[in-house]
Amino acid sequence: MITLKGKNIYLRALEPEDLEFIYAIENDESVWEISNTQAPYSKFLIKQYLEQAHKDIYEVKQLRLVVSSYNEEPLGLIDLFDFDFKNSRAGLGILIKEESNRKKGYGSEALQLLIKYSFSHLGLHQLYCNISEDNTTSIKLFKAQGFKEIGIKKDWNHINGLYKNEYLFQLINN
Fold first, then answer.
1. CA atoms within 13 A on the CB side of 165
2. What are the structural domains, with CATH classification, of the chain?
3. Which of 20, 36, 145, 153 is at a distance of 20 to 30 A from 135, taking alpha carbons?
4. Which of 128, 114, 109, 132 is nearest to 35 (CA)?
């Protein structure tokens, strides 16, 4: 049985009611570095995105899910992106919105659920993620899920006048 339900959280599809939540995340400049966002998103564009969110991962090459508590509070977003059916791989990213909800195991549980889903249901062979060298929390989180550092991209991102390295992590389904 395929389930996206964990002990403390579950992963669910995007809903029209998520407009304000996604708008707040996409327009929070403090997380733009993580998502490589350069400019704010309008509610109109996010509403259009939500109207298309039902499309199949094989068509749009992305799957975005809401990390939700069992009291229906949206906690964050988790994404599969750059879905490559031919090579059986996808990128993986996660964000828990409020700092007060971080370091409580929600991100770890969400990653475990999506990794299991990716390998068992989607038949992926590998997942990868890109993490800035100074994002020690994410590095620790992904390493704890079995991701291995396989490379470093030197001076990869230009942030606030500085070039930062970015690590490439990979998890192969053996």
1. 9
2. 9-124 (3.40.630.30)
3. 20
4. 132
pLDDT tens-digit readout, 15-57:
999 999 999 988 888 777 776 677 778 888 888 888 888 788 8
Dist CA 10 CA 8 (whole Å):
7
Cα 160–Cα 151–Cα 66 angle in degrees, nearest 5: 65
The Cα–Cα gap between 77 and 95 comes to: 5
* Euclidean distance between CA atoms 173 and 146, whole angstroms: 10
Can you give 73-122 as a three-state secondary structure string? CEEEEEEEEEEECCCCEEEEEEEECCHHHCCCCHHHHHHHHHHHHHHHCC
pTM: 0.91
